[in-house]
Amino acid sequence: MENFSSPFPLDNSSLSSSLLSLCPTFTTLFFLPSAYTFLFLTALPGNILSLWVFLRCISTVSPTHVYLSHLSISNLILSLTTPFLAAYYAWGSDWTLSSALCQLVLHGITPVLHINIYISIMILTWVALSRFASLIQHTHASRPNRCVAFLPHGFFARLKSTSFANRVCIVVWSVAIGCVVPVTVIYSVKEAAIVKKAGVGCTEVCYSPAVEIGGRLSAGLAMIVIALFFLFYLLVLTSYMMVLRHIGRSRKSTNVTTSQSLLGRVLRNIVVIQAVLSVCLLPYHIYKPIFISLANDQRQLRYLPGPNICKQCHPFSIFVELKNCLLLLAALRGSTDPLMYFLLDKTFRHETLKLLRCNQNKTGSTKSSSVTGSNTTKAGPLEEGNLATVTADISQGSFL
Question: For 341, how many CA atoms within 13 A lie in the half-sphere containing its CB?
Fold first, then answer.
Protein backbone atom coordinates (compact mmCIF):
# COMPACT_ATOMS: atom_id res chain seq x y z
CA MET A 1 0.00 0.00 0.00
CA GLU A 2 2.99 2.29 0.23
CA ASN A 3 3.68 2.36 -3.53
CA PHE A 4 0.98 4.82 -4.62
CA SER A 5 2.01 7.80 -6.73
CA SER A 6 2.54 11.28 -5.36
CA PRO A 7 -0.30 13.77 -6.03
CA PHE A 8 0.13 16.36 -8.75
CA PRO A 9 -1.87 19.45 -9.71
CA LEU A 10 -4.74 18.91 -12.07
CA ASP A 11 -3.72 18.92 -15.72
CA ASN A 12 -4.75 17.24 -18.93
CA SER A 13 -2.36 14.32 -18.45
CA SER A 14 -3.30 13.48 -14.85
CA LEU A 15 -5.61 10.65 -13.78
CA SER A 16 -8.34 10.53 -11.12
CA SER A 17 -7.46 8.76 -7.88
CA SER A 18 -10.47 6.49 -8.47
CA LEU A 19 -8.41 4.70 -11.12
CA LEU A 20 -6.07 3.35 -8.47
CA SER A 21 -6.82 -0.03 -6.92
CA LEU A 22 -7.91 -0.82 -3.40
CA CYS A 23 -5.41 -3.21 -1.85
CA PRO A 24 -7.30 -5.56 0.50
CA THR A 25 -5.46 -6.85 3.55
CA PHE A 26 -6.11 -9.76 5.91
CA THR A 27 -9.03 -7.78 7.36
CA THR A 28 -10.93 -7.71 4.09
CA LEU A 29 -9.88 -11.07 2.68
CA PHE A 30 -10.29 -13.23 5.81
CA PHE A 31 -11.75 -11.39 8.82
CA LEU A 32 -14.81 -9.85 7.14
CA PRO A 33 -15.79 -13.04 5.24
CA SER A 34 -15.42 -15.07 8.45
CA ALA A 35 -17.45 -12.55 10.45
CA TYR A 36 -20.29 -12.46 7.90
CA THR A 37 -20.30 -16.27 7.82
CA PHE A 38 -20.65 -16.28 11.61
CA LEU A 39 -23.42 -13.70 11.30
CA PHE A 40 -25.27 -15.99 8.88
CA LEU A 41 -24.91 -19.05 11.13
CA THR A 42 -26.24 -17.20 14.18
CA ALA A 43 -28.71 -14.67 12.78
CA LEU A 44 -30.61 -17.08 10.52
CA PRO A 45 -31.67 -19.65 13.18
CA GLY A 46 -32.00 -16.97 15.87
CA ASN A 47 -34.43 -14.83 13.89
CA ILE A 48 -36.37 -17.81 12.54
CA LEU A 49 -36.88 -18.95 16.14
CA SER A 50 -37.80 -15.42 17.26
CA LEU A 51 -40.31 -14.99 14.46
CA TRP A 52 -41.87 -18.38 15.20
CA VAL A 53 -42.26 -17.49 18.88
CA PHE A 54 -43.79 -14.08 18.13
CA LEU A 55 -46.23 -15.35 15.48
CA ARG A 56 -47.14 -18.84 16.71
CA CYS A 57 -46.38 -19.24 20.42
CA ILE A 58 -47.56 -15.98 22.03
CA SER A 59 -51.36 -16.13 21.92
CA THR A 60 -51.98 -12.63 23.37
CA VAL A 61 -50.09 -10.40 20.94
CA SER A 62 -49.21 -6.91 22.17
CA PRO A 63 -48.19 -3.97 19.98
CA THR A 64 -44.60 -4.39 21.20
CA HIS A 65 -44.56 -7.96 19.90
CA VAL A 66 -45.78 -6.66 16.53
CA TYR A 67 -42.84 -4.24 16.39
CA LEU A 68 -40.35 -6.94 17.35
CA SER A 69 -41.77 -9.42 14.83
CA HIS A 70 -41.20 -6.88 12.05
CA LEU A 71 -37.70 -6.33 13.36
CA SER A 72 -37.13 -10.10 13.23
CA ILE A 73 -38.37 -10.20 9.62
CA SER A 74 -35.92 -7.47 8.70
CA ASN A 75 -33.05 -9.27 10.44
CA LEU A 76 -34.03 -12.55 8.79
CA ILE A 77 -33.82 -10.95 5.34
CA LEU A 78 -30.46 -9.48 6.29
CA SER A 79 -29.13 -12.88 7.36
CA LEU A 80 -29.92 -14.28 3.89
CA THR A 81 -27.65 -11.66 2.30
CA THR A 82 -24.60 -12.28 4.48
CA PRO A 83 -23.16 -15.18 2.40
CA PHE A 84 -23.01 -12.84 -0.60
CA LEU A 85 -21.29 -10.16 1.49
CA ALA A 86 -18.75 -12.72 2.67
CA ALA A 87 -18.09 -13.72 -0.94
CA TYR A 88 -17.77 -10.07 -1.99
CA TYR A 89 -15.06 -9.29 0.54
CA ALA A 90 -13.22 -12.54 -0.15
CA TRP A 91 -13.26 -12.38 -3.96
CA GLY A 92 -14.53 -8.90 -4.87
CA SER A 93 -11.06 -7.77 -5.91
CA ASP A 94 -11.09 -10.61 -8.50
CA TRP A 95 -14.64 -10.09 -9.81
CA THR A 96 -15.14 -7.76 -12.74
CA LEU A 97 -17.51 -4.86 -12.26
CA SER A 98 -19.86 -6.20 -14.92
CA SER A 99 -20.05 -9.73 -13.49
CA ALA A 100 -23.40 -11.08 -12.28
CA LEU A 101 -22.24 -11.57 -8.68
CA CYS A 102 -20.85 -8.03 -8.48
CA GLN A 103 -24.06 -6.56 -9.85
CA LEU A 104 -26.09 -8.64 -7.38
CA VAL A 105 -24.08 -7.30 -4.44
CA LEU A 106 -24.27 -3.70 -5.65
CA HIS A 107 -27.94 -3.61 -6.65
CA GLY A 108 -29.51 -6.10 -4.24
CA ILE A 109 -27.40 -6.90 -1.20
CA THR A 110 -26.16 -3.39 -0.36
CA PRO A 111 -29.65 -1.82 -0.22
CA VAL A 112 -30.98 -4.64 1.99
CA LEU A 113 -28.09 -4.20 4.43
CA HIS A 114 -28.69 -0.48 4.86
CA ILE A 115 -32.47 -0.80 4.92
CA ASN A 116 -32.14 -3.25 7.83
CA ILE A 117 -30.01 -0.79 9.80
CA TYR A 118 -32.52 2.04 9.54
CA ILE A 119 -35.55 -0.17 10.09
CA SER A 120 -33.93 -1.28 13.36
CA ILE A 121 -33.37 2.21 14.68
CA MET A 122 -36.83 3.46 13.62
CA ILE A 123 -38.69 0.52 15.17
CA LEU A 124 -36.76 0.78 18.43
CA THR A 125 -37.32 4.54 18.43
CA TRP A 126 -41.07 4.07 18.11
CA VAL A 127 -41.19 1.35 20.76
CA ALA A 128 -39.22 3.56 23.16
CA LEU A 129 -41.52 6.54 22.62
CA SER A 130 -44.70 4.46 22.93
CA ARG A 131 -43.54 2.76 26.13
CA PHE A 132 -42.59 6.14 27.60
CA ALA A 133 -46.02 7.52 26.69
CA SER A 134 -47.75 4.56 28.35
CA LEU A 135 -45.59 4.91 31.45
CA ILE A 136 -46.32 8.59 32.00
CA GLN A 137 -50.04 8.05 31.38
CA HIS A 138 -50.45 5.32 33.99
CA THR A 139 -48.40 6.77 36.83
CA HIS A 140 -49.31 9.73 39.01
CA ALA A 141 -52.92 9.82 37.84
CA SER A 142 -53.54 12.67 40.31
CA ARG A 143 -50.64 14.69 38.87
CA PRO A 144 -50.40 13.95 35.13
CA ASN A 145 -47.07 14.44 33.41
CA ARG A 146 -46.80 17.64 31.35
CA CYS A 147 -45.79 15.57 28.29
CA VAL A 148 -49.34 14.18 28.09
CA ALA A 149 -50.69 17.59 27.12
CA PHE A 150 -48.58 17.68 23.95
CA LEU A 151 -49.71 14.28 22.66
CA PRO A 152 -52.62 13.96 20.18
CA HIS A 153 -56.08 13.09 21.50
CA GLY A 154 -56.61 9.34 21.51
CA PHE A 155 -52.89 8.63 21.21
CA PHE A 156 -52.79 6.32 24.23
CA ALA A 157 -55.75 4.30 22.97
CA ARG A 158 -53.96 3.77 19.66
CA LEU A 159 -50.82 2.59 21.44
CA LYS A 160 -52.72 -0.47 22.67
CA SER A 161 -53.95 -1.39 19.17
CA THR A 162 -52.06 -4.04 17.21
CA SER A 163 -53.55 -2.70 13.96
CA PHE A 164 -52.01 0.69 14.71
CA ALA A 165 -48.67 -1.03 15.38
CA ASN A 166 -48.89 -2.78 12.01
CA ARG A 167 -49.57 0.55 10.28
CA VAL A 168 -46.58 2.10 12.00
CA CYS A 169 -44.37 -0.76 10.80
CA ILE A 170 -45.62 -0.32 7.22
CA VAL A 171 -44.65 3.36 7.40
CA VAL A 172 -41.24 2.42 8.83
CA TRP A 173 -40.57 0.00 5.97
CA SER A 174 -41.69 2.59 3.42
CA VAL A 175 -39.51 5.35 4.86
CA ALA A 176 -36.44 3.10 5.12
CA ILE A 177 -36.81 1.83 1.56
CA GLY A 178 -37.59 5.30 0.23
CA CYS A 179 -34.50 6.82 1.87
CA VAL A 180 -31.98 4.06 1.18
CA VAL A 181 -32.82 2.87 -2.33
CA PRO A 182 -32.16 6.20 -4.12
CA VAL A 183 -28.79 6.51 -2.40
CA THR A 184 -27.69 2.98 -3.28
CA VAL A 185 -28.96 3.26 -6.86
CA ILE A 186 -26.94 6.41 -7.46
CA TYR A 187 -24.02 5.00 -5.50
CA SER A 188 -23.81 1.62 -7.18
CA VAL A 189 -25.37 2.13 -10.61
CA LYS A 190 -24.55 5.64 -11.78
CA GLU A 191 -21.27 6.43 -10.04
CA ALA A 192 -19.75 2.95 -10.17
CA ALA A 193 -20.50 2.67 -13.87
CA ILE A 194 -18.83 5.92 -14.95
CA VAL A 195 -15.34 4.73 -14.06
CA LYS A 196 -13.73 3.34 -17.20
CA LYS A 197 -10.25 1.95 -16.81
CA ALA A 198 -9.98 0.64 -20.33
CA GLY A 199 -8.19 3.80 -21.39
CA VAL A 200 -5.21 2.97 -19.20
CA GLY A 201 -5.34 -0.78 -19.75
CA CYS A 202 -6.78 -1.66 -16.33
CA THR A 203 -9.60 -4.07 -15.59
CA GLU A 204 -12.67 -2.74 -13.80
CA VAL A 205 -13.00 -4.77 -10.60
CA CYS A 206 -15.92 -4.95 -8.19
CA TYR A 207 -13.98 -4.07 -5.02
CA SER A 208 -12.84 -0.64 -6.20
CA PRO A 209 -12.77 3.01 -5.07
CA ALA A 210 -15.73 3.81 -7.34
CA VAL A 211 -17.88 1.28 -5.47
CA GLU A 212 -16.52 1.66 -1.93
CA ILE A 213 -16.13 5.46 -1.89
CA GLY A 214 -18.73 6.63 -4.39
CA GLY A 215 -19.23 10.14 -5.70
CA ARG A 216 -20.42 13.53 -4.48
CA LEU A 217 -24.13 13.02 -5.13
CA SER A 218 -24.43 9.76 -3.22
CA ALA A 219 -22.29 11.25 -0.43
CA GLY A 220 -24.68 14.18 -0.10
CA LEU A 221 -27.71 11.89 0.08
CA ALA A 222 -25.91 9.67 2.59
CA MET A 223 -25.38 12.69 4.86
CA ILE A 224 -29.14 13.26 4.93
CA VAL A 225 -29.73 9.63 5.94
CA ILE A 226 -27.03 9.92 8.63
CA ALA A 227 -28.71 13.06 9.98
CA LEU A 228 -31.99 11.12 10.24
CA PHE A 229 -30.19 8.38 12.17
CA PHE A 230 -28.90 10.88 14.72
CA LEU A 231 -32.41 12.33 15.04
CA PHE A 232 -33.82 8.87 15.83
CA TYR A 233 -30.91 8.06 18.14
CA LEU A 234 -31.39 11.27 20.10
CA LEU A 235 -35.13 10.58 20.37
CA VAL A 236 -34.37 7.16 21.87
CA LEU A 237 -31.81 8.62 24.25
CA THR A 238 -34.14 11.44 25.27
CA SER A 239 -37.06 9.10 25.88
CA TYR A 240 -34.96 6.81 28.05
CA MET A 241 -33.57 9.75 30.03
CA MET A 242 -37.12 10.99 30.61
CA VAL A 243 -38.18 7.50 31.70
CA LEU A 244 -35.35 7.44 34.23
CA ARG A 245 -36.33 10.88 35.48
CA HIS A 246 -40.01 9.93 35.70
CA ILE A 247 -39.28 6.73 37.61
CA GLY A 248 -37.00 8.65 39.96
CA ARG A 249 -39.74 11.14 40.74
CA SER A 250 -42.29 8.34 41.17
CA ARG A 251 -40.09 6.52 43.68
CA LYS A 252 -39.90 9.67 45.80
CA SER A 253 -43.55 10.66 45.65
CA THR A 254 -45.30 7.26 45.75
CA ASN A 255 -45.45 4.74 48.59
CA VAL A 256 -44.15 1.67 46.80
CA THR A 257 -42.70 -1.08 48.93
CA THR A 258 -42.75 -4.06 46.58
CA SER A 259 -41.62 -2.57 43.26
CA GLN A 260 -37.93 -1.91 43.98
CA SER A 261 -36.75 -5.02 42.13
CA LEU A 262 -39.10 -4.25 39.23
CA LEU A 263 -37.76 -0.70 38.99
CA GLY A 264 -34.24 -2.07 38.98
CA ARG A 265 -35.19 -4.45 36.16
CA VAL A 266 -36.64 -1.60 34.09
CA LEU A 267 -33.51 0.48 34.59
CA ARG A 268 -31.31 -2.48 33.63
CA ASN A 269 -33.29 -3.06 30.46
CA ILE A 270 -32.94 0.59 29.48
CA VAL A 271 -29.17 0.52 30.01
CA VAL A 272 -28.73 -2.72 28.03
CA ILE A 273 -30.78 -1.57 25.02
CA GLN A 274 -29.14 1.84 24.90
CA ALA A 275 -25.73 0.16 25.11
CA VAL A 276 -26.59 -2.14 22.17
CA LEU A 277 -27.64 0.84 20.06
CA SER A 278 -24.53 2.79 21.00
CA VAL A 279 -22.06 -0.05 20.46
CA CYS A 280 -23.51 -1.44 17.22
CA LEU A 281 -24.93 1.54 15.34
CA LEU A 282 -23.33 4.70 16.67
CA PRO A 283 -19.66 4.11 15.65
CA TYR A 284 -20.50 3.65 11.96
CA HIS A 285 -22.61 6.80 11.83
CA ILE A 286 -19.94 8.83 13.59
CA TYR A 287 -17.21 7.60 11.25
CA LYS A 288 -19.20 7.82 7.98
CA PRO A 289 -19.32 11.67 7.84
CA ILE A 290 -15.58 11.75 8.54
CA PHE A 291 -15.04 9.20 5.79
CA ILE A 292 -17.12 11.23 3.33
CA SER A 293 -15.20 14.41 4.15
CA LEU A 294 -11.82 12.72 3.70
CA ALA A 295 -13.00 11.09 0.48
CA ASN A 296 -14.09 14.45 -0.89
CA ASP A 297 -10.62 15.86 -0.25
CA GLN A 298 -8.98 12.80 -1.79
CA ARG A 299 -11.21 13.09 -4.86
CA GLN A 300 -9.56 16.41 -5.70
CA LEU A 301 -6.14 14.81 -6.12
CA ARG A 302 -4.78 13.70 -9.48
CA TYR A 303 -2.02 11.21 -10.26
CA LEU A 304 0.38 11.01 -13.17
CA PRO A 305 -0.07 7.93 -15.37
CA GLY A 306 2.64 5.31 -15.25
CA PRO A 307 3.40 1.78 -16.42
CA ASN A 308 2.21 0.26 -13.09
CA ILE A 309 -0.81 2.47 -12.49
CA CYS A 310 -3.09 -0.57 -12.29
CA LYS A 311 -1.06 -2.08 -9.43
CA GLN A 312 -0.74 1.07 -7.35
CA CYS A 313 -2.67 1.06 -4.10
CA HIS A 314 -5.25 3.72 -3.41
CA PRO A 315 -4.23 5.78 -0.34
CA PHE A 316 -7.77 5.39 1.00
CA SER A 317 -7.62 1.59 1.23
CA ILE A 318 -7.21 1.48 5.02
CA PHE A 319 -10.08 3.94 5.55
CA VAL A 320 -12.33 1.78 3.37
CA GLU A 321 -11.49 -1.29 5.46
CA LEU A 322 -12.28 0.58 8.67
CA LYS A 323 -15.64 1.68 7.21
CA ASN A 324 -16.48 -1.90 6.29
CA CYS A 325 -15.58 -3.15 9.77
CA LEU A 326 -17.89 -0.59 11.39
CA LEU A 327 -20.63 -1.52 8.92
CA LEU A 328 -20.19 -5.14 10.03
CA LEU A 329 -20.63 -4.00 13.62
CA ALA A 330 -23.93 -2.37 12.66
CA ALA A 331 -25.05 -5.54 10.85
CA LEU A 332 -24.26 -7.70 13.90
CA ARG A 333 -27.51 -6.51 15.47
CA GLY A 334 -29.08 -9.24 13.37
CA SER A 335 -27.44 -11.72 15.74
CA THR A 336 -27.73 -9.74 18.97
CA ASP A 337 -31.45 -8.90 18.72
CA PRO A 338 -32.73 -12.47 19.44
CA LEU A 339 -30.36 -12.66 22.41
CA MET A 340 -31.64 -9.31 23.64
CA TYR A 341 -35.26 -10.50 23.40
CA PHE A 342 -34.36 -13.66 25.34
CA LEU A 343 -32.56 -11.84 28.15
CA LEU A 344 -34.96 -8.94 28.65
CA ASP A 345 -38.46 -10.20 27.77
CA LYS A 346 -39.95 -12.70 30.22
CA THR A 347 -42.74 -13.79 27.90
CA PHE A 348 -40.40 -14.37 24.98
CA ARG A 349 -37.93 -16.23 27.18
CA HIS A 350 -40.61 -18.48 28.68
CA GLU A 351 -42.13 -19.32 25.31
CA THR A 352 -38.73 -19.98 23.73
CA LEU A 353 -37.64 -22.33 26.50
CA LYS A 354 -40.99 -24.08 26.37
CA LEU A 355 -40.70 -24.52 22.61
CA LEU A 356 -37.20 -25.98 22.93
CA ARG A 357 -38.34 -28.35 25.68
CA CYS A 358 -41.30 -29.46 23.54
CA ASN A 359 -38.98 -30.31 20.70
CA GLN A 360 -36.89 -32.42 23.06
CA ASN A 361 -39.81 -34.10 24.79
CA LYS A 362 -43.07 -34.40 22.82
CA THR A 363 -44.86 -36.08 25.74
CA GLY A 364 -44.81 -32.86 27.77
CA SER A 365 -46.73 -30.80 25.20
CA THR A 366 -50.08 -30.93 27.03
CA LYS A 367 -48.63 -29.61 30.26
CA SER A 368 -46.72 -26.91 28.42
CA SER A 369 -49.90 -25.68 26.71
CA SER A 370 -51.55 -25.10 30.08
CA VAL A 371 -48.57 -23.06 31.22
CA THR A 372 -48.83 -20.92 28.10
CA GLY A 373 -52.38 -19.91 28.86
CA SER A 374 -51.52 -18.71 32.35
CA ASN A 375 -48.39 -16.89 31.31
CA THR A 376 -49.67 -14.94 28.33
CA THR A 377 -52.34 -13.35 30.50
CA LYS A 378 -49.58 -11.44 32.22
CA ALA A 379 -48.43 -9.94 28.95
CA GLY A 380 -51.54 -7.88 28.34
CA PRO A 381 -51.75 -4.11 27.96
CA LEU A 382 -51.05 -1.64 30.75
CA GLU A 383 -53.82 -1.08 33.29
CA GLU A 384 -54.61 1.98 35.39
CA GLY A 385 -52.87 1.72 38.72
CA ASN A 386 -49.83 2.47 40.77
CA LEU A 387 -46.17 2.33 39.75
CA ALA A 388 -45.74 -1.29 40.80
CA THR A 389 -48.46 -2.41 38.36
CA VAL A 390 -46.95 -0.41 35.50
CA THR A 391 -43.38 -1.56 36.03
CA ALA A 392 -44.51 -5.15 36.43
CA ASP A 393 -46.27 -4.99 33.06
CA ILE A 394 -43.32 -3.35 31.36
CA SER A 395 -40.83 -5.87 32.65
CA GLN A 396 -43.04 -8.90 31.93
CA GLY A 397 -44.89 -7.97 28.74
CA SER A 398 -42.23 -5.94 26.94
CA PHE A 399 -38.48 -5.91 26.81
CA LEU A 400 -38.52 -2.08 27.11
Answer: 27
**Residue pair 73/175 in contact by the 8 Å Cβ criterion:** no
- 302 in the Ramachandran plot: left (φ > 0), alpha (ψ -120 to 50) or beta? beta
CATH number of 7-39+62-242+276-342: 1.20.1070.10
Q: Where are the domains of the chain?
A: 7-39+62-242+276-342
The pLDDT tens digits for 202-255 are 667 889 887 888 777 777 878 888 998 899 888 888 877 877 777 776 666 555
Exposure of 102 in the CB half-sphere (CA atoms within 13 A): 21
CA distance 128 to 126: 5
- Give me the amino acid identity at 256: V
Rounded CA gap, 350 and 377, in Å? 13
Q: In 3D, which of 19, 23, 21 has the Cα closest to residue 200?
A: 19
CA distance linking residue 125 with residue 233, whole number of Å: 7
Q: Which residues of 85-96 are buried (b: 16+ CB within 10 A; e: fewer)?
A: bbbbbbebbebe
Q: What is the pTM of this model?
A: 0.79
